[in-house]
Structures are given as C-alpha cells and as structure tokens.
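INFO  loader      accepted 1 record
INFO  loader      residues=143
INFO  predictor   begin
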Amino acid sequence: MNFKRFCSLNFLAKLLLSAIFVNAIPSKITNFGSQAQYITSRGFPEPLSNLLLIAATGLLISGSILLIFSNKTKLACSLLLIFLVPTTIIFHLVPLQFMAIARNLSLIGGLLIAIDKTNFNSFNQDTKQESNEIEYSDLNEDN
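INFO  predictor   done
INFO  writer      dumping tokens
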C-alpha cells in the first residue's frame, strides 16, 4: 500500500466506518463467557451461543481488517452486514432499544453506501477501459 492511499478521504471514511466494529472486538474476546451467556439468555442453546459468538467475532475481525486495509470493500461491508443485521433484530428489537436500533440502521446505511460506491467505481473503471480500447482501435484504423 502506498502513502497516498492512507491520506485519502476514502481511507478516512472506511477507517471511521469501521471504528465501531473494531471497538466491539476486544470485549467479545476478553469477556467471552459473559457474552456467550447473554446470547444464551436470548433463547439460544449454550453450544450454539458459543458458536455464534465465535462467528460474530470472526466476522467483525475479518470485515474490519478488509475494510480498512484492502480494496475488497464490497466483501468487507458484506461481512459486517452479515454480523449487523441479525444482531440488530435479535438483540435490539425486543425489548425495543431505539438508540441501538437507530445507530445500527445508520451503520447499515453507511455500509450499503460503501457497497454502492464500490459498484459505481468499478463501473466507471470498466467504462474508461472500454473507451480507451475504442479510441486505440480507431487510431489503428486510420493508419
């Protein structure tokens, strides 16, 4: 990676978007037992609770790392959405936790915008390459 990429607005946006997910990782690891008990209290069997917590931690770590340090924005945001959507439904709808739901909906919106921006940039790069090829072929025909 080059220094110019780290100074870009896009990098700053991805870093800020991932901050809340990065912040959630340490407590899931250091308080694994109590986190698993909380999942069990929501009606999941204990072995499944442990598995869900491991999966959630893996999604948070891999999604955050990919979002911050790679160009795989679409994959990173998808992994974080796989974590965030069920978490919002399972843990914040009953009992209704309006602030947590509002925060998570904002994050979901930000992740969807990042996915959409990635698709737009990919489309623009494909269009630029296509137009360059057309211009080059036009030059060859004139010669």
